[in-house]
Amino acid sequence: VFPSLAQAQASVANEVYQELGQPSIFLFCPTEYCSSLCSPSPSQSCYLLTIGQELLPGIGVIWTGPKVVSQELSATQLEEVEGVLQRRPVIWDNLYANDYDCRRVFLGPYMGRAPGLMSRLHGLLLNPNCELQANFIPIHTLGSWFRSELRSCAHADHAGMETATALEDSQGSEEGSYSPQDALELALHDWVAEINRQALEPGR
Asked: How many C-beta atoms lie closer than 10 Å to residue 175's C-beta?
């Protein structure tokens, strides 16, 4: 029925999206969802070019970066993906995922993501460790990164200043750009406080 896999997927996704009344959040995960899966590259992939052309503009497209588990994300990489998909990607961040090797647990701070990325993203999803409590530091430091990105956006766009300022006032802030080490220390401080609080609960 369809001349290519990409056209088939786009057609089905578009039909479901319209049937559901075009919801504000509707995500599509392409078969080629990172650079290493694209042939020969994201900007020259016939599959991604078709997805970008055929998929309705209200549908978000998931992307993991250069690899399935990407150690780094840069603005240049995201600009290439945005160009071929004709929309900013939703990052599906597997930095902490350990479902492929549950003998490992990742406890470090959120890092390897260049400053100013938020303006190039439609959204960001964090794929966590399978062990629930091991995600305190990853999620806490992601929050610090996000607040830093909001401040950067606010300085670039004064219209968003009040929103960023309100968020900083309610959740605390640090001067300057995001520092993984400072974010880690803050997360460890809050994690110890949480552990001590739980230890005092009846029956613990």
From this structure: 7
Between CA 204 and CA 192 the distance in angstroms is 16
Q: How, if at all, do strands 123-126 and 60-63 pair? A: unpaired
Distance CA 152, CA 161 (A): 10
pTM: 0.84
Residue 125 · residue 94 · CB < 8 Å: no
Q: What is the pLDDT of residues 161-203, one digit of tens each?
A: 444 444 444 444 445 689 999 999 999 999 999 999 988 888 8
Domains of the chain: 5-155+178-200 (3.20.20.80)
190 burial (CB, 10 Å; 0-12 / 13-18 / 19+) is: middle
